[in-house]
From TrEMBL, chains A, B:
Keywords: Lyase, Metal-binding. This is Hydroxymethylglutaryl-CoA lyase. PROSITE patterns: PYR_CT. Belongs to the HMG-CoA lyase family.
Amino acid sequence: MNKEIDVRICEVGPRDGLQNEQTPIDTAKKVAWINQLVDTGLTYIELTSFVHPKWIPALSDAREVVRGVKRKQNVTFGALVPNERGLERALEAGVDEIAIFLSASETHNRKNLNQSIDQTYTTLLKVINEAKNAGKSIRGYISMVFGCPFEGQIHINQVSSISYRLMEMGVNEISLGDTIGIATPNQVEDVLRHVSKQVPLTNIALHPHDTSGTALVNTFAAYKVGVRAFDGSVGGLGGCPYAPGAAGNVATEDMVFMFEGMGVKTGVQLEKVIQCAQWIQSIVKRNLPSHRLQMALAHQNKGGVK
Amino acid sequence: MNKEIDVRICEVGPRDGLQNEQTPIDTAKKVAWINQLVDTGLTYIELTSFVHPKWIPALSDAREVVRGVKRKQNVTFGALVPNERGLERALEAGVDEIAIFLSASETHNRKNLNQSIDQTYTTLLKVINEAKNAGKSIRGYISMVFGCPFEGQIHINQVSSISYRLMEMGVNEISLGDTIGIATPNQVEDVLRHVSKQVPLTNIALHPHDTSGTALVNTFAAYKVGVRAFDGSVGGLGGCPYAPGAAGNVATEDMVFMFEGMGVKTGVQLEKVIQCAQWIQSIVKRNLPSHRLQMALAHQNKGGVK
């Protein structure tokens, strides 16, 4: 990790945020927005997803987005890939890092990927090996870590065993997702301590959701346990795929505000992130759930209090 | 404290929530709503404010509200009073507990109360003595504890000295308010540890605001330090008086969700509180910032996922 920062904020808005947005957005606008994000000090930006456009039409311009953004030293540009075909397209477009995914919930994994977790390992191993051969680092998302809409609670051993398996397969960073935003801080501590027996916390990131308003408290709990990488989405873009209308991804700026307030250096410029949030809110034309954005807008309208 | 609960949730919605709402609400509806709140298991409900109706027309029916609600054993009904005249009206209406207030910020105190903090002590002492003589317990709110829109940072010694002074004057519970929602968890820990040198934490409550999305993380931090009383407002009713449109009071149901998820007993029934939030949202006719309410509504609309 960059020695000048204490935690690494991983920006997933252009992928995880936009994939759930209904408003079609021009590629040129996406690229302009990502270029703004690059200037905030963020060091990881997940640009898009190379899943089949049939599944996520909003990201069907994946290649053009990857090719369009300006590159910057020390900023890693990632993209999600579901399989070898996606990997080929991602490599051809020229990403720095490959993100793969599976679910901690057998039922959700089958519904989402149409295969068992064991079958998914086979797919992922091929993708990981090819990506490694191409010199790429790998990020692995595990969803439903803290609870699943189909299975309810997920056994803590299931989370650590999947995490360990991914690390063995060569994944560099494993992002544990609170996909339905149901985690409470004690649970985050318990899961992370359990996982840390098999996978060093330096290889773990937290992907909190704010559906229950607990994204920052769970972030804080994970930080206290020793996690140093956190996923956010500018503006809180994305929502909750399992509860349309409710909050999903935590706003990057809310996370940066908390950490900087704690004296924990993120390397990210809060005001610039808020500007990016304001910009994308004007594009998607709905009020985003970001607290610091709405506070900034309220102050602008009032022309006053800081 | 009731031995069957681990933390006490203090419901301030009918006072601190409604005082900022623009929609006029019939007294009968307020009373019906408070009666619902009484059935959730909450043990403190702040019913209204006996400030002059000129200042808060929304609460000009204070007397009728206090007289209208059904009483229940083990539920304390409080009301805010600014001065002796307010106290008289509150006592005459029949409240159980008196809430008084001042600001940790000299500038804000002068703007809000038109007197210095020292002058306010004189006013409050009279109110406290009279209330004590009438056999009432006293709750004291200190606002702007973690930052002020006029003064910026508030010195930690200022907070502990005001807290100590209030305790000396006979205040039973002192609620420290993050009025502009600017606190971060480390600051909450620092302030509380400092205050606890002069005032036992058993006499301290936290009044978090969610303007920056940090209400629950600050609640968690305060709990870890040893605070066991927390103020919430059903639905997150109230907003931020210093940033209209932004979030203010934390939703009681979000707080209950977090604590119960942590195995910390609140004695409050989450589903019933969410019903109260849904009810008042239908009255004020705007989407309230409560996460658990919006999640519940999203699931209702979808007819599915729990």
